[in-house]
Structure formats: structure tokens, C-alpha cells
Design brief:
The structure holds two protein chains of two kinds.
Chain A: E1 2-10, H1 19-27, E2 30-38, E3 44-52, H2 54-67, E4 70-73, E5 78-80, H3 90-94, E6 100-103, E7 108-111, H4 121-125, E8 131-133
Antiparallel strand pairs in A: 1-3, 1-4, 2-3, 5-8, 6-7
Helix pairs in contact in A: 1-2
Chain B: H1 5-13, E1 19-21, H2 24-40, E2 43-45, E3 48-51, E4 56-60, E5 74-77, E6 80-81, E7 90-94, H3 116-124, E8 129-134, E9 145-150, E10 158-165, E11 172-174, E12 181-183, E13 186-188, E14 195-197, E15 220-223, E16 226-233, E17 256-261, E18 270-275, E19 279-287, E20 289-291, H4 295-301, E21 309-314, E22 329-331, H5 332-336, E23 339-342, E24 345-351, H6 355-370
Parallel strand pairs in B: 1-2, 11-21, 14-24
Antiparallel strand pairs in B: 2-20, 3-19, 4-7, 4-10, 5-6, 5-8, 8-9, 10-17, 12-13, 15-16, 15-19, 16-17, 18-19, 21-22, 23-24
Helix pairs in contact in B: 2-4
The chains are: A alpha+beta, B alpha+beta.
Chain lengths: 135, 401
């Protein structure tokens, strides 16, 4: 079993297609939608947690790519600009998934991007705006 | 066996001074006792790096040809309004100033992406800043409009002057209401969802010299990555608050007005800061060296987080309505454990002040002193102390008929 958080970008021509539905029907994958919107230029953006058999997961992602959907890990889209991070810890209490945690020994903040769900709550809460979203 | 400032400075100059941070002195005193530590250690360095409102800069741009008197007119720096009411070409910019077209909290909560604090950071970083000014014109200063890039390296004087920094202790903020609130102590989740505080605790300058015995007007300090000075009593200085047996105030107390040459400073120690729903400010790095003149100073600097208490205040009602009720006191040791208990509820904590950066400041100052570059200073005048009766008065409004 694998479970991954991915960002899907749909070109204009695919926005009205029931593509996620096919991930369930054809590949027996489970999904959890974390974020979804259609931009003013009618491109779709979908952040999914996708879970299932490893082979089926790979086939599902290949299916998406074959249709022209750009697929990339969520961890590439939420980034910490370390030069602006003061390790104050304000983000830690707003992060719902413990992707941002404070090491009580070093008192430094650690960002585990594999736990991030892209909710962006940290971005506006960060006083020095060290957290960045690049969706 | 007391030491004098002059004796300590002789040791600094000859490279023999023993300098430790306010974190390191704790273990030294624990191991060897106060008497031994006081003999051995000459200087203890402190540090703090947190958002500090009441910060700002002033600078002189030089005279244009033909001349222009900005005073009485307007001045903007990257669209952020400055203040030109001092003279012809002296300009002042406060950390909390916002561009006139910033939506503020009209779309609540506002983002406050850019303001005075960010202009200060960019100026210090050596970036060009757009200056736009207008004036009414006089016979000796005929020019009425000015649009130009300015850069810190071409300014005559550029000075950081902060009327209130380095608060000696502060509130821990919580939210008792059922809606999220946005404060200068960060986002506070409803129903005691989190507790935010802002102090370096055992490393904080004035918590290591609770009665202002060595820190006073004229004290040379680390300020924004360069050297600065304590210029005056900070605004809202309030030494008369209740204190613990160790002399440490149990609430926000003393403050310092700080001054220093902006040209020596570094952007990593003066960071533009945005508080969602609240506004813009500046995060300032401050470090103060404390000469260990006697056993008493040694004992003061050995203060630890478990001996420093602050009040827990509800920022949904008590703070904005200026009600004095608190939800009790909590130690910085407890706050730093990541969780405190309020009214039987476990509440996660977060600090706005960066402890790792405070350590870095104290270490930097230690190195400066060890290398003999930085001497300790005898204050020119004392700050009003706990016995002075000096206090922070609220505004008594007198309605204008």
C-alpha cells in the first residue's frame, strides 16, 4: 500500500471530465481531496491524497499523465524559505497535521513536507512570511 | 570582592576577560556557586530577537538642486508614508506605517504584506528605495515635487531609533471567545486553542538585570547586527509592577529606547514582519552585555526560565477592554515545554520571540567582547527603578466639548 499527497494540474480541456472518478473505478485507488479550484484561465488545480496498491498507484498516475494532467508531489509546492525563518514557532500551533513541529531541545522548527496537506494556514500566520506556496 | 567596569574593560582589552552567555552562566553558578562564578566571570551576554513595535528610522537625504523643504509636505518610501515634519530633508519612517492603498482590515483579516518594517529591512539590505515627496515651495526652497531612488550608502546619516524595545517580560496571550482572533501576539484560536508568548526568558536583557543596576542610559549594546546604545528610558517603562523574590517582574515592566547607526546593521537582524489581521512591524535583534560587578549581579544573570513568571491574558476581552483580570501566571519553563494548563485545559504554546536567534545574538556579542572589540559601559544615568514610583499611566480621557 502507498499513500501520497500530490498536486494535479488540469488543462482547460479536461476541467469538465470525471477523471478522479476513473482513479477509483479503473485502479481501485482511494482519494481524499485536500484542495480544489479552477483558476480564472479555467485550468484546474487539485491536491489529493491518493492511497492504494503500489502498482495500481503507478498505473493511476501514468493514466493521469497520459491524459495531459501534470502531476507532482505536494512537497514541492509548500516551501520554507529558511533564510526568513526565525524558528519562533508561531506556525506550529496553527499547523493541523504536525508537519511543522518544534524540537524542544534545539528550539528549532522542523518542516516535514511529507505531512503537509497544503492548507496554507502557516503562510499568513508566519510573521516573517517564511512559508511560501507555489501552486 | 567587587569588580569595577574599568577593571573588566582592562581584561577585555588584554583578551583575558571571561565572557559567557546568560544561558551558560546558569550551569556555571549551579556547579561552582555564586561566589566562585562572580569571581571568575566578567561579562554575561544576553540576547532577544522578537517583533518590536515602537521601532523606526530617520535619515538625511541631502539637498536636491534646486532645494526643496519636505517639512510641511509629504514623503513616501516605496509608497509607505514617512514623516518629514522635522526639517527640510530629514525623513522619519516608523515600522508600523502602511501604504495608503493597503486594504488594511477591510477584507478581514488583512494580510499586511508590506509596510514600514519591510522598507527598513530593504534599506538596510542595500536595496534602492523609491522616494516620492511633495512640498509647498518657498523662496529659499522652491522645488515642489521629487521622485528619486535613494540608497543607504548615499544617505548622510541613517539611524535606527526605537522608542520602546526589549520589554522586560510580557503577557502570554490566549483567546477565551468562540471565534478566532488576530493579534500582535499572533493568531489565537478560539476557546483556549493556543497560548502565545513573546520573551527570550532567561536570555532576555532586562530579565538578567531586573533592577537596572548595570543597564542604563549610554549602555553600549548589540543592535540589529551592529553596535548601538541605550538612548533613554523606553516608552511605557513600568518598573513598579509586582516582582518575585528574585526581583524579576511578574508582568511587562521596564523598557529601553535604543539608538544605533543603521549603516552598520544587517537585514537578518532587522526583519520586516507581518501580523495577519493586525499590521506590520519590525523584528529587532538586541543583545546587552552585563558586567559581573559583584555576587548580586552574578545571581541575577543566573536566573532561569523556571524562575520567571508572566501573566496569562485573554486577548478577546480583557486586553482590548483594558480589564486587569488575568487567568493566572505561568513560568517560561512551562511555556517552553510546548503546553500549559489553563482552567483544566491543556493548551499548546508558541513563542513569537526566537530563542535560537537570541542564543545567536548572545554568542555574537560574546565573541565581539572576547576579541577586545567591544567594551562594557558605565551608564551615564540610571533608569527609574522599582523604588522610583515611576509608572505607566493609562490615558484619562477628557471629552472635548
Amino acid at each position: 500500500m502507498v499513500s501520497k499527497r500530490i498536486v494535479l494540474r488540469f488543462p482547460h480541456r479536461l476541467v469538465d471530465q470525471p477523471i478522479v472518478c476513473n482513479l477509483v473505478r479503473k485502479f481501485d485507488l482511494e482519494f481524499n481531496i485536500l484542495k480544489a479550484y479552477v483558476t480564472p484561465r479555467e485550468e484546474g488545480l487539485l491536491v489529493l491524497e491518493l492511497r492504494g496498491n503500489e502498482k495500481a498507484y503507478e498505473e493511476g498516475v501514468d493514466y493521469l499523465r497520459g491524459l495531459g494532467v501534470a502531476v507532482q508531489p505536494l512537497s514541492q509546492d509548500i516551501i520554507r524559505n529558511i533564510s526568513r525563518c526565525t524558528h519562533c514557532g508561531v506556525c506550529v500551533v496553527v499547523c493541523p497535521t504536525e508537519a511543522l513541529v518544534l524540537d524542544l531541545n534545539t528550539r528549532k522548527v522542523h518542516f516535514d513536507d511529507t505531512k503537509c496537506i497544503g492548507c496554507e494556514l502557516c503562510i499568513k500566520a508566519c510573521p516573517t512570511r517564511a512559508m511560501e506556496a507555489h501552486f | 570582592m567587587a569588580k569595577t567596569i574599568a577593571q573588566i574593560n582592562e581584561k577585555i582589552k588584554s583578551g583575558k576577560a571571561v565572557v559567557v552567555t546568560a544561558e551558560e552562566i546558569i550551569g556555571i553558578v549551579e556547579e561552582r556557586g555564586v561566589a566562585e562564578a562572580a569571581k571568575e566571570v566578567d561579562v554575561v551576554t544576553t540576547g532577544t530577537f522578537g517583533p518590536m513595535c515602537s521601532s523606526g528610522i530617520y535619515f538625511n537625504i541631502g539637498h536636491s538642486k534646486p532645494r526643496m523643504k519636505l517639512g510641511g509636505g509629504t514623503v513616501f518610501l516605496n509608497d509607505v508614508p514617512g514623516y518629514a515634519g522635522y526639517a527640510a530633508v530629514d525623513v522619519l519612517l516608523g515600522a508600523t506605517a502602511l501604504p495608503e492603498d493597503d486594504p488594511r482590515n477591510k477584507v478581514y483579516p488583512g494580510e499586511f504584506k508590506y509596510g514600514g518594517g519591510h522598507v527598513i529591512e530593504e534599506l538596510v539590505a542595500g536595496k534602492d528605495i523609491k522616494l516620492v515627496a511633495s512640498a509647498y515651495g518657498t523662496d529659499c526652497y522652491p522645488r515642489r515635487k521629487l521622485e528619486t531612488w535613494v540608497n543607504i550608502k548615499n544617505l548622510n546619516e541613517a539611524v535606527l531609533f526605537n522608542p520602546r524595545n526589549a520589554y522586560q517580560n510580557y503577557n502570554c496571550a490566549v483567546n477565551l471567545s468562540d471565534r478566532i482572533i488576530y493579534t500582535y501576539l499572533g493568531v489565537l484560536k478560539p476557546n483556549l486553542g493556543n497560548a502565545n508568548y513573546c520573551s527570550a526568558g532567561q536570555l532576555s536583557p532586562l530579565l538578567n538585570d531586573p533592577f537596572y543596576k548595570t543597564i542604563g542610559i549610554g549602555t553600549k549594546i548589540f543592535l540589529g547586527g551592529g553596535a548601538g546604545y541605550v538612548a533613554w528610558i523606553g516608552t511605557q517603562h513600568n518598573p513598579s509592577v509586582p516582582r518575585g523574590e528574585n526581583g524579576v517582574p511578574r508582568a511587562g515592566a521596564g523598557t529601553l529606547a535604543l539608538i544605533g547607526d543603521l549603516k552598520q546593521m544587517k537585514p537578518e537582524w532587522l526583519m520586516g514582519t507581518s501580523f495577519q489581521g493586525y499590521g506590520v512591524t519590525l523584528t529587532v535583534g538586541v543583545g546587552v552585555p552585563i558586567p559581573i560587578l559583584d555576587e548580586e549581579m552574578c545571581r541575577f544573570t543566573a536566573v532561569r526560565d523556571s524562575d520567571i513568571y508572566c501573566p496569562v491574558v485573554d486577548y478577546s476581552r480583557a486586553y482590548p477592554q483594558r480589564e486587569s483580570a488575568t487567568l493566572g501566571e505561568v513560568s517560561y519553563a512551562k511555556l517552553k515545554s510546548g503546553e500549559i494548563e489553563i482552567s483544566g485545559k491543556r493548551v499548546p504554546t508558541a513563542s513569537l520571540s526566537s530563542y535560537p536567534k537570541a542564543v545567536e545574538i548572545a554568542e555574537t556579542l560574546k565573541e565581539w567582547i572576547k576579541k577586545g572589540h567591544f567594551l562594557v559601559t558605565e551608564p551615564i544615568a540610571r533608569l527609574p527603578g522599582a523604588e522610583s514610583g515611576y509608572s505607566f499611566k493609562p490615558l484619562v480621557e477628557r471629552p472635548v466639548e
